[in-house]
Every structure is written in structure tokens, then in C-alpha cells.
């Protein structure tokens, strides 16, 4: 039997109205001072209510907004501000970028000798030279988009535009609680929701096809794809569909679980250099690259008679209510219906995309693409 290792998972609550339970869950922790890292839009609607409920339970709090892809400077600034009177717990209320920032803040506030003295950059994989100790404040993750699955993973992705997009990673950085309330996502713009959803679908598909997959991760990936196959097209038709929002939240959570336990593929190998070159939403990158990548993987699998890989693609197609020969076209259609822009809208040129293809890693892709093939996939979405 193949060795099976499962990473730590957070306590999970998926429920319409679950956000109302958050203050009591914080109170149960016995922590009397917390930090809240949040997105601006969700805070404008839900922040006052949360603050009132926390205050009524004699819980002190400090809060800070985070927008865009988080950088080491953003994390360092928050840590420096909070290091004099540290909170005992961090709430992350927002999308994947907010949750990543919160996990990094929680880690750096607890890292021995680091808070207010060292940059998180010193601890990033491939950037710094110091391995994180694993110390961290507890994080309660409350995602307001359904995409990265960061509420279920052990890494926090930080970027410097023109420099890098790398992870702060340790088994102890998995949030203690993942609270998913579809009502929090209802007001998200369609473009944000579509990019996030395509990110989750990409992660589920890449993990299913990954060379590091197992029967455990395969089952979860298929379950997530079944949920997304029903919910994503419904969401494109009606962004206010609460049931669809809940199903996508479930799919996104599972995408985080399977990426942590099976690994990902070329698309995420491309997302790092592309995201480091320009400030472009991660989910958009995934959505743009998914159809062309799936099309080529299927062609290669058939040419090389990789029966297991073909079967997995068939399972993915079935879960998404498609035939395997029509899978790439289905994904193309979803991308078109989403109205998402191509790389050119973010200032990328053909020459730049060709160069970035050379910096793309394969990760656990079942197919090793040549640099030319990667460039072709990129250029299709210019």
C-alpha cells in the first residue's frame, strides 16, 4: 500500500449564518485581545456587527485592512504595529490574500525574537535563509471568497512585484478554525467570484492529476468538483445564489485540503513567476491557463496511453457534467461567461510571456511540458 500522510486540518464549520457564531467561538478560546485582518469591502458591511458582538463579550480587538496581493512589507508593518501589545488570536476575514496575510502576521508575532525586529522575508522559502520555528498565534479563518482554500493550508503566499511570489510555510500555520458562511460572499463582484471559483476548480483538477495524489485526495478532489460543477455555472447566472455560494465554499475548502496533501501542477508553477511580474489576481491566472493545459494533458495522456490519467480526466469531466472530449471547451465557456480579461489587460507582452514560460516549474504535473508548450498556453490568453 502507498504511504498515506495527511496534513493537519482546521476545525470546520460551513453553514449559512455561521458568521453569527464567531464571537462566541472567540470567547470560548479565553483570549481577551484579538487582531482582525480583513478586506475593506467585507468590513464595510460586517465589521460594525462583529465589533459590537466582541465588545459585548469584553473582548478587545485591533483591526487592519489588507487589499491586493500581500507583500512582506504589509506583513511587517502590521507586526511592528501590534508587537508592543500583541493580540492572542488572529481573525482573518476576507479572501485568500487576506487569510495569507493573517497567517503570516500570526506566525511573525509568535516567532521567537522576530516580532518588530526581523522581516518575514527572512523566513520565506527561496528568499530568506531562516526556517520558521512553527510558533504561531491561533488563526480563525473566515473566507469571503471561494478560491484559494487558504483556510485549510499551512502556507502563506507573499509577493514583491518585480521580485518574487513565495511561501511562508510550516505545519503549524494551518488555521485552527475555518468558518465558511456563504452569506459573506453574496455581495462579492462577479469577476472576483469567477476568478476565485476557477482557482478552486484548477486546484481540484491539478491535485486529482498530481503525481503526488492518493485515493484519499482523489476522493476529496472529485467531491469538490461535483460541488463546483453544479454551483459554478449557477453562480455565473445568479451571483446572489446562496446555495451555490455554499457549494463553492465547500469546493474551495477541499481544494486547499488536496493541494496540501497531493500537490499541484504546471498552472501553479506558472502562477508564481506571473504573479511576481505583475499585480494580477492569482485566480485569474489559473482560470486563463486551465483550458489550454487540460486540452494538452488529455492529448498527451492519449498519445502515451496513460490510462490512469485518462480515467482521472474522465472523472473530472463527469463531475463537471461534461464528456472528457468536451472538458476543455466547457472550461473555455466558463471563462468566456465570466467576462474575465486576458494577460494583455495587465500589461503583459508576448515577449514577456515567452520569458515567463522559461521560469515556470512543473511541480507535480503528470505531464512535463516543454518551454515552447508552456509559452503556447500563455500566448493563447494574451
From TrEMBL:
<dbReference type="Pfam" id="PF25137">
    <property type="entry name" value="ADH_Fe_C"/>
</dbReference>
<dbReference type="GO" id="GO:0004022">
    <property type="term" value="F:alcohol dehydrogenase (NAD+) activity"/>
</dbReference>
<dbReference type="InterPro" id="IPR056798">
    <property type="entry name" value="ADH_Fe_C"/>
</dbReference>
<keyword id="KW-0560">Oxidoreductase</keyword>
<comment type="similarity">
    <text>Belongs to the iron-containing alcohol dehydrogenase family.</text>
</comment>
<feature type="domain" description="Fe-containing alcohol dehydrogenase-like C-terminal">
    <location>
        <begin position="194"/>
        <end position="378"/>
    </location>
</feature>
<feature type="domain" description="Alcohol dehydrogenase iron-type/glycerol dehydrogenase GldA">
    <location>
        <begin position="11"/>
        <end position="182"/>
    </location>
</feature>
<dbReference type="InterPro" id="IPR039697">
    <property type="entry name" value="Alcohol_dehydrogenase_Fe"/>
</dbReference>
<dbReference type="GO" id="GO:0046872">
    <property type="term" value="F:metal ion binding"/>
</dbReference>
<protein>
    <submittedName>
        <fullName>Uncharacterized protein</fullName>
    </submittedName>
</protein>
<dbReference type="Pfam" id="PF00465">
    <property type="entry name" value="Fe-ADH"/>
</dbReference>
<dbReference type="InterPro" id="IPR001670">
    <property type="entry name" value="ADH_Fe/GldA"/>
</dbReference>
<feature type="coiled-coil region">
    <location>
        <begin position="303"/>
        <end position="337"/>
    </location>
</feature>
<keyword id="KW-0175">Coiled coil</keyword>
Amino acid at each position: 500500500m502507498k504511504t498515506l500522510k495527511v496534513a493537519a486540518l482546521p476545525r470546520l464549520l460551513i453553514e449559512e449564518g455561521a458568521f453569527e457564531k464567531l464571537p462566541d467561538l472567540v470567547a470560548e478560546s479565553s483570549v481577551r485581545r484579538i487582531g482582525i485582518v480583513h478586506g475593506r469591502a467585507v468590513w464595510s458591511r460586517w465589521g460594525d456587527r462583529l465589533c459590537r458582538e466582541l465588545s459585548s463579550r469584553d473582548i478587545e480587538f485591533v483591526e487592519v485592512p489588507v487589499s491586493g496581493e500581500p507583500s512582506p512589507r504589509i506583513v511587517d508593518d502590521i507586526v511592528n504595529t501590534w508587537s508592543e501589545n500583541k493580540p492572542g488570536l488572529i481573525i482573518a476575514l476576507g479572501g485568500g490574500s487576506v487569510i495569507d496575510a493573517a497567517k503570516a502576521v500570526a506566525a511573525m508575532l509568535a516567532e521567537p525574537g522576530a516580532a518588530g525586529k526581523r522581516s518575514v522575508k527572512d523566513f520565506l522559502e527561496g528568499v530568506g535563509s531562516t526556517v520558521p520555528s512553527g510558533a504561531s498565534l491561533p488563526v480563525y479563518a473566515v473566507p469571503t471568497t471561494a478560491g484559494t482554500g487558504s483556510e485549510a493550508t499551512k502556507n502563506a503566499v507573499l509577493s514583491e512585484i518585480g521580485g518574487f511570489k513565495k511561501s511562508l510555510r510550516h505545519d503549524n500555520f494551518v488555521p485552527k478554525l475555518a468558518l465558511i458562511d456563504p452569506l459573506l460572499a453574496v455581495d462579492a463582484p462577479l469577476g472576483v467570484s469567477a476568478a476565485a471559483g476557477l482557482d478552486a476548480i484548477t486546484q481540484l483538477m491539478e491535485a486529482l492529476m498530481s503525481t503526488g495524489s492518493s485515493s484519499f485526495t482523489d476522493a476529496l478532489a472529485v467531491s469538490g468538483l461535483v460541488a463546483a460543477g453544479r454551483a459554478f455555472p449557477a453562480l455565473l447566472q445568479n451571483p446572489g445564489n446562496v446555495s451555490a455560494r455554499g457549494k463553492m465554499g465547500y469546493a474551495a475548502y477541499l481544494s486547499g485540503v488536496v493541494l496540501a496533501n497531493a500537490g499541484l501542477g504546471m498552472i501553479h508553477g506558472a502562477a508564481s513567476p506571473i504573479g511576481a511580474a505583475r499585480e494580477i489576481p492569482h485566480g485569474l491566472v489559473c482560470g486563463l491557463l486551465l483550458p489550454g493545459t487540460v486540452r494538452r494533458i488529455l492529448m498527451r495522456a492519449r498519445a502515451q496511453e496513460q490510462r490512469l490519467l485518462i480515467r482521472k480526466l474522465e472523472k473530472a469531466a463527469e463531475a463537471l457534467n461534461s464528456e472528457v472530449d468536451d472538458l476543455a471547451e466547457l472550461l473555455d465557456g466558463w471563462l468566456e461567461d465570466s467576462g474575465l480579461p486576458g494577460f494583455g489587460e495587465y500589461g503583459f507582452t508576448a515577449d514577456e510571456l515567452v520569458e515567463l514560460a522559461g521560469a515556470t516549474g512543473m511541480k507535480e504535473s503528470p505531464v512535463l511540458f516543454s518551454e515552447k508548450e508552456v509559452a503556447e498556453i500563455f500566448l493563447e490568453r494574451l
